[in-house]
Amino acid sequence: MPNRSAEQQKQQQALVERLFQSCGGSYSPETRRKYYISGPQWAAAYEGQALFHAPTREPVAPAEVMRNFAKIGIGYWTTHDTDVIRTEDLMTDRQAETVAGLKKSLAENGLRCSMVTCETFFHAVWSASPAAESPDVRAYAAERLKNVVRIGHELGAEFAVYWPGTLGYMMQGIMDEPQTLQWFAEALNAACEEDLRVSKQNKSPALKHCLEAKPFEPQGELILPTTDAMIGFIHSGLLTHPEMVGVNPEYLHELMWGGAPRAALARAIVAKKLWHFDVNDGYRLKHDVDLPVAVVNPLDWLNVLMLLRAHGYDGPFNFDYKPPRTTSNWGVFNVSFPSAVDRFITFWEMAGEALADPIIGEAMEALKSGGAAAGAASAQDIFESTKELLTLHELIAHRLVQVLIGSHKGRKFFGAS
Ligand code: GLO
Ligand code: MG
Ligand code: MG
After folding, report:
1. Is the CB of 117 under 6 A from ligand 1?
2. From ligand 1's centre to the CA of 230, what distance in Å?
3. Cβ-based neighbour number of residue 119 at 10 Å
4. pTM (two decimals)
């Protein structure tokens, strides 16, 4: 029996490989490496488990993840502290050994660690959040954040990300929210202070600290549910170093609450806080399915990347998605990551084409010039003067769909003359 299934698996992999190759359109590892694309340890090693799901895949060790990322052409690796170090080994000699091993694997694979993040949502210690009423929990949270900052420096990371997933409640009225926010700020302040200390000591740049919001899940209600809430919090006066703190919006997290991810990103851009970006896809007003980038909302993804290209975003694109649990361990590195990366690059290229498209360009310019209604015209005159121009909105939307499906490059559909 085991032999038979091993044979079947080989045949099935050959089929998947052949069909994937038939899809075509893949980029070389060299091309993929030109983008600031990071692959999370936790995405690659995700075993497919969830509240109602048993795991479907085997665990994958960091060195194995790195080896595969290097082969695919993903140049950067990101990790939670506890993805690679057991909670009980954190801040011990075991941690130092593990971090030294990670540095070695990164170097061997020609990879860099771009971001480190602190797990403050999974372990039982966070059951009442990292800003819990208990001073012991809060002191431990501050130590964990400071430790992540030190690991970040050790691994040469540029960013530290914090997703305070448990900063909220299940039942109303159990906490004093302003007090909880103050406590949460204290942990972040400790992380920034530690960063300043270490970077001064090492004469190395400080990390960029980025807050990530999610509107619901795993708590019933969150205190900082959106990127806008995070930006408000950064400017609340509770942080001692607001200039060191920015945001890491996640595409799906903004969509989940019903927001327009592009508009959320735009608000972070004008606040000069868009430093890091988690890319994935999913559905509005549903749970955090973390699907691979652009498989659900391709037109929106084209638009999001147009915005980021137009405004010179040069931070990382962190592939914070979950390879579907129907994908095998083999499939994670042979189909899931390469196809996600290639779709992303394709959309990035398409966004460039759309921004350079002469039709869209001329339409935008015409709209900006307006109708030239002479000076002190009435509301009705102003309206009349642009009435025909405004049809360009619909024309632009049409053109963007043409870019998406390639008909601007002459792609014809069966039956089209
Ligand atoms: C979960 C979050 C999570 C964070 C990670 C980094 O929904 O997206 O994956 O991005 O913990 O802080
Ligand atoms: Mg995320
Ligand atoms: Mg998510």
Report:
1. yes
2. 15
3. 21
4. 0.96
